Amino acid sequence: MQVSVESLSKVEKRLTITLSSQQVEKAFDAQLLVFAKKVDIKGFRPGRVSLAYVKKRFGQEVRNEAINSLIQETLREAIHQEKLYPISTPQIETKWASQTDLEYTATFDILPEIDTVHFKVDSLEKLTASITEKDIEQTLEKVREQNVLWEKVERMAQEKDKISGKIQMFTEEGKPLTPESLPLEFVLKDEPSIFGWNLTEKLGGTKRGEEKKFNHTLPQESFLQGMGGKTLEFRIEVLDVFEPRLPTLDQAFAKKLGIDSGDINDLRSEIGKQLELNLKRTIKGLLKTRVFEKLIEQNPLEIPRSLIDREAKHLHDENCSIQGQPHHKHSQKDEAQFSVLAKKRIQLGLLVSELVSKNKIKPSPERINEYLTELASIYADSNEYIRRVKADEKGLKEIETFVLEDQIVEKLLENVSIVEKEVSYEKLIRQADLNQEENSTITQ
Description:
Blueprint: E1 2-9, E2 12-19, H1 21-38, H2 51-81, E3 91-96, E4 102-109, E5 123-128, H3 133-146, E6 149-153, E7 162-170, E8 182-187, H4 199-203, E9 211-217, E10 231-245, H5 251-256, H6 264-298, H7 305-322, H8 332-359, H9 365-376, H10 382-391, H11 393-412, E11 417-422, H12 425-439
Parallel strand pairs: 5-11
Antiparallel strand pairs: 1-2, 2-4, 3-4, 6-10, 7-8, 7-10, 9-10
Helix pairs in contact: 1-2, 3-6, 6-11, 6-12, 7-8
């Protein structure tokens, strides 16, 4: 067996393997024996068919099987011999090098080689903030809004009201998209619904017992498969109208949120603790994001297309699963964004792995326990929370990854000057949300 290696790019290899006629015929003879023992031919006892008869009748079929097996076997040997690590299924092309010798090529992707990980940064800005009474009160109001009570009213619906009703949609030809009306609930907001029309504009002013009819052209990227850009007639029957009422800040409300004492001041104190924990993690997360951005920027890597496509599909499936639409399709623009995000994630993973290997960094057990204790501090039974996390292999692995990333960031920042910039808690969270939006999957 002769083997030659060609680099088509930094991440693509092609092996050319030549097999002698003796190898081919030896494989053919061996396959012929196997075939003869298992073939069932009328008039012959099992395993008693003559090789000459099998060769004459099934020769080409047996030869093809033998060559396929030989290619798989010798390819494994060649890959091991050349110390290569394919990350995609090899694409095989065969040809006869002469009348009897067989030559084939195997083309596949490999991971890029990383000689040195560069990180040269003189200084980095670190956003910081402090929790104020205003932040606690604003959070308390958001908690009340999240626990809003709905009271049925007989008046016309207005913004912020909730409508309970039924909806049915018809094509321009009058054909219903569903056999019957479907139940729905809409909170009226001055923003588009999932169908693309404005909630308050279309349903404001309606009341119990009324039916609202209107036509609307769906967005091109509508979640209704095959309906993008088409005009539908909507018929909405209003069953009830509800107005929102914020819960009273009393003992019952505090107990509902897990404050055993029912004391609103204890609730405020608990909110403050959670905000402090969130603040600490957000500050660390923002700095980590800046460090990893610089790391990717200073270490451009050529990533195999096959690997990007696989990761982009994973991101797509993950995103659509969260949205409850596993078969949802995105536009070409969104698909391109998935690829960009996939490439970034792969680059970062490869660079971090290299840093971990070169610096022999392992997740510190002490740091893992500190992280767990910090997370558990907001729970009434912190020991039970820690026990459950440690019993969850997947959850514990995620925490180990967070700790390992923190250790990598600290290593990279050893010779970097950190410049702190004080901002409001609200602005800090807004920045974190913006980063999350830019570096996460596409939302619908």
